[in-house]
Fold:
Amino acid sequence: MPESFVIFMDYGGQIVINEKIQNVLNAQINKEFYSAYLYLAMSAYFDEIGLCGFSHWTKVQAQEEVDHGMILFDFIIERNGKVELSPISAPDVTLGTPLEIFERIYEHEKYVTSSINCVASMSDEECDLASRNFIDWYIAEQVEEERNVYEVILNLKMFGDDKSALYLLDKDLKSRVFKAHSYN
Ligand code: FEO
Structure:
């Protein structure tokens, strides 16, 4: 039996996930839950300064991040792999104006996109086509997430110091609805 085949089998002869891919998927779970923490910290801050719509939007985003983590969790289990949960760091939030916070969010989402892209490249390198196919959903999701954040940034830049416009945007962000996704 070729060596490369042996490493994909556990002692019961079951096909299991490639270990390198399992490790990056576990690391990605941590990044998604960290993202949820980050958005929750922002949500609390927005609530504190009276921007309830911004607070709601970031709280819904936190729910989405937990969802992203759980889909990875379910996928590892589905592939007979081992979920390994690591500590979640406290969110590093430098709070400021809504524009500064959304610029921070945009940078964070670009970082998550690069991390997802690495999982995709590694799946290609390891010829793990099931993982490669699975991660496509995240690639599309990141395009949407970056665009959503960028639209808020564009609005905030356009409105400048106009408090009435900020009030209207806050009302608009309050209408965001959480949509659950699932792997199965
Ligand atoms: Fe799950 Fe915002 O990336």
